[in-house]
# Entry
Amino acid sequence: MIKKSDVEHVALLARLELTDNEKEIYTRQLNDILGHFESLQELETTNVEPMAHVLSLFNVFREDKVDRHLPSENVLANCPDRDEDCFRVPKIV
# Structure
């Protein structure tokens, strides 16, 4: 159970200035969240194999293969500004 003093302590560590109303709201919200986690304790998990990840991890990479492509001259012909075989774009940063 989260107490108002716990919220005050976390706010102090995060250097947040909270009003009394905000402290009450966050205390209530955090307790609601923890209540949802407590409801998970009621689930029957005796026949569930322990896991480190909810999804099966497997290699999703595919083998590289050369496919048909446009010649670079055709692609660069539509480019408003280029530098040899490269697109020239406006500086962003």
Summary: The two ends are 47 Å apart (CA to CA). Residues 4-40 form a domain with the Histone, subunit A fold (CATH 1.10.20). The longest helix spans residues 20-40. The chain has three helices and two strands.
